[in-house]
From TrEMBL, chain A:
It comes from Amycolatopsis japonica. Belongs to the 3-oxoacid CoA-transferase subunit B family. InterPro entries: CoA_trans_fam_I, NagB/RpiA_transferase-like. Pfam families: CoA_trans. It comes from the Bacteria. GO terms for molecular function: 3-oxoadipate CoA-transferase activity. This is 3-oxoadipate CoA-transferase subunit A. SUPFAM superfamilies: NagB/RpiA/CoA transferase-like. Its EC number is 2.8.3.6. Keywords: Transferase.
From TrEMBL, chain B:
It comes from the Bacteria. The lineage of its organism: Bacteria, Bacillati, Actinomycetota, Actinomycetes, Pseudonocardiales. Its EC number is 2.8.3.6. Belongs to the 3-oxoacid CoA-transferase subunit B family. PANTHER family: ACETATE COA-TRANSFERASE YDIF, CHOLESTEROL RING-CLEAVING HYDROLASE IPDB SUBUNIT. Pfam families: CoA_trans. The keyword Methyltransferase does not apply. GO terms for molecular function: 3-oxoadipate CoA-transferase activity. This is 3-oxoadipate CoA-transferase subunit B. Keywords: Transferase. InterPro entries: CoA_trans_fam_I (IPR004165), NagB/RpiA_transferase-like (IPR037171).
Amino acid sequence: MAELLSLKEAVARLVHDGDTVALEGFTHLIPVAAGHEIIRQGRTGLTLVRMTPDIVYDQLIGAGCASKLIFSWGGNPGVGSLHRFRDAVQHSWPVPLEIEEHSHAGMANRYVAGASGLPFAVLRGYTGTDLPMQTDTIKPITCPFTGERLAAVPALNPDVTIVHAQRADRAGNVQIWGITGVQKEAVLAAKRSLVTVEDVVDELEPRPGAIVLPSWAVTAVAKVPGGARPSYAAGYYERDNDAYQAWDAIGRDRESFTRWLDELTGVKA
Amino acid sequence: MTEYTSDEMMSVAAARALGDGMSCFVGIGLPSTAANLARRGHAPNLTLIYESGCLGAKPTRLPLSIGDGELADTADAVVSVPEVFNYWLQPGRIDVGFLGAAQLDKFGNINTTVIGPDYANPKVRLPGAGGAPEIAASCREVFVVLRQSPRTFVEKVDFVTSFGHGTGKGDRERLGLPGAGPTLVVTDLGLMRPDPETAELTLTELHPGVEVDQVVEATGWKLKVSGDLGTTPAPTEAELRILRDLKRASA
């Protein structure tokens, strides 16, 4: 049964220094508020996992929370680069960042294997690319039936996965709709999970096509209205494209980033 | 004749390459502009597929990102990311993969990972692969669209993020890659296609007003020019109107 907790308490209980943490969301429903709470609580040494690390990962990396990133596309969607991520990779600021780099198909299949309780997944990807030479978690495998050469990637089983969703009921069942990315797989692959939601209701009104994560598959639910901003929550609010544009200038330079960080963590300048 | 920019010419030329009724796996940026222009112009039955899981998206404006709500709201179906890659892309159901690039080499290999020879200490760290390696592997063919300069059109890419034709003709077959790879490159100066004998990208068409020397200078390898060099038709009034309306609606 999922526990209904405050965001602060959920992060304090579920996310520990050195954990492997996935905050998933594919443009839609990015758990930004939870990422900020991890920064406020000062976690360090995290292995951050996400297909599309965007500005909240830039912020976590810039704040020094992460020592490793497992990912497949790191950028500010529609805007450009993640400058804190770049600074960490190219100049080890504020701490060195190890990277483990995949393609989207590779990452998606790693979560599928994790959610399926299998040790690895197989895909017809990576062939001819330089990625297998840099990433130890891509290995060739031969199909035992046809002899075809394919790529194997190991299951991803985060210590904790955090996602944002539209609604939960008081028992902790979660409803999520729109672009659902790999959120279901990432939650089911994880040892622990936290779902932040826009709303907690007495009863979930059925919505065709909306995924329900049953209470018993989730560790904790926290009500965090607006918890995906500046990304969006279908049915609740739209993506704040200006905020993504504005991040480019803040993230670009260490000083302006540090001012942003001080403001987030409540440090007086 | 309405005046137009070289970027507009590029978008129009890229859009024209997409036939009505095709399915197209769309990357964000220039490819998305071209695909949406095609769908609102000569190819109303073009199926746009975005890696966020939106199949058959019909956006009224250009999405800023591949996961924009507009794409989901207008799609025939919204599926999970594992599904879009495993069920729709991998088996070869999609006609065209439409990609951008940070670097492209003379055999159509694409780099979106790092600039510089040392992966661990890159000169520039780029966003990475995203969906591109599998799009390049599995779509029936691949179109690439990017602005041309010696910095982007290099003899050999620093990192092969997505495989084009490797080191020449026959590499794809040897590796067992299902799709035909890059069959067309659209730039702000002209069009290139792989030479049928060698798979080396060769200039086949110039945009109006562009000279061969200009393209040669903007290419980081000794560019081959087709003996049968053509000229792209200038954008029509209708194409420009649709493109500008799209841009205006998306601003």
